[in-house]
C-alpha cells in the first residue's frame, strides 16, 4: 500500500512553520503545523501515520521532551529533529531518545526530501506489516480451541500420531480438525497456516521444527 505523505511541522517560530509548510506542499507532501509540542501531542491520537519535523528549542515542552512523551508512537510518527547550526550534542541526544534523523536550520531542501522519502518508505512497510498482523489475527479468531491446539502442535513439528496422543484424540479426529483448521484459515498448505499463526502471535518462531506430518 502507499500512504498519503503527511508531514507534521512542530515549531514555535511562525515564519519557519509557514516557509516549511509551503516547501512541503509544493513538493507533494501534506503538511500540517503546530506552534507547540503540547498542541501536537494533544492532536496526535487522531492523526494518520506520518513524519514529524520537530524543533528542538521550544518553550514549555521542548523537542526532546516531546520525543519522550511520544513513547511507542515513534514507529508510526518517525521524528526528524530541527536544530540550530552546530547544536550536534542536542541532535545526538534526540537520536538516542528515538528520533530518526536531524537537520540543521536552514535545512537543505534536497537532503530533507531524501530523508523524508526514506522514512516514508520504512513507514509504508511498517503499516503493511501491521495490516498483515491484523488480518492474521482476524483469521485465527475463526478457529475453535481444538483447532488452535492442533495448529500449535503442528508448529512444534509434531506428527499427527503424537498430536493425537497428547490431546487424547484419535488420529482420524486430529486429521479432521486439521482439515477444518486449514479451511477456516483459508489456506491450502501448512506453511501458509504457520505463517498466519506466527503473524498473529499464536505460536512463536522458536516453536520447533515445522516439518509437515
From TrEMBL:
Residues 6-120 form the Response regulatory domain. One of its GO terms (molecular function) is DNA binding. Pfam families: GerE (PF00196), Response_reg (PF00072). InterPro entries: CheY-like_superfamily, Sig_transdc_resp-reg_C-effctor, Sig_transdc_resp-reg_receiver, Tscrpt_reg_LuxR_C, WH-like_DNA-bd_sf. The modification 4-aspartylphosphate is found at residue 55. This is Response regulator. PANTHER family: DNA-BINDING TRANSCRIPTIONAL ACTIVATOR DEVR_DOSR. Residues 136-201 form the HTH luxR-type domain. CDD domains: LuxR_C_like (cd06170). Keywords: DNA-binding, Phosphoprotein, Transcription, Transcription regulation, Two-component regulatory system. It comes from the Bacteria. One of its GO terms (biological process) is phosphorelay signal transduction system. It comes from Glacieibacterium arshaanense.
Amino acid at each position: 500500500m502507499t500512504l498519503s505523505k503527511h508531514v507534521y511541522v512542530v515549531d514555535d517560530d511562525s515564519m519557519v512553520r509557514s516557509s516549511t509548510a509551503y516547501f512541503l506542499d509544493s513538493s507533494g507532501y501534506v503538511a500540517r503545523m503546530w506552534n507547540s509540542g503540547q498542541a501536537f501531542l494533544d492532536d496526535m491520537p487522531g492523526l494518520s501515520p506520518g513524519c514529524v519535523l520537530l524543533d528542538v528549542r521550544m518553550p514549555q515542552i521542548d523537542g526532546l521532551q516531546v520525543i519522550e512523551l511520544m513513547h511507542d508512537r515513534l514507529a508510526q510518527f518517525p521524528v526528524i529533529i530541527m536544530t540550530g547550526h552546530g547544536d550536534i550534542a542536542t541532535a545526538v541526544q534526540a537520536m538516542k531518545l528515538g528520533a530518526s534523523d536531524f537537520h540543521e536550520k536552514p535545512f537543505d531542501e534536497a537532503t530533507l526530501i531524501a530523508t523524508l522519502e526514506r522514512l516514508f518508505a520504512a513507514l509504508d512497510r511498517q503499516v503493511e506489516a501491521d495490516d498483515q498482523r491484523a488480518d492474521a489475527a482476524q483469521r485465527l479468531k475463526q478457529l475453535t480451541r481444538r483447532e488452535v491446539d492442533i495448529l500449535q502442535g503442528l508448529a512444534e513439528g509434531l506428527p499427527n500420531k503424537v498430536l493425537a496422543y497428547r490431546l487424547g484424540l484419535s488420529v482420524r479426529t486430529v486429521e479432521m480438525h486439521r482439515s477444518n483448521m486449514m479451511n477456516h484459515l483459508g489456506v491450502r498448505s501448512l506453511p501458509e497456516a504457520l505463517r498466519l499463526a506466527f503473524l498473529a502471535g499464536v505460536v512463536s518462531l522458536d516453536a520447533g521444527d515445522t516439518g509437515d506430518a
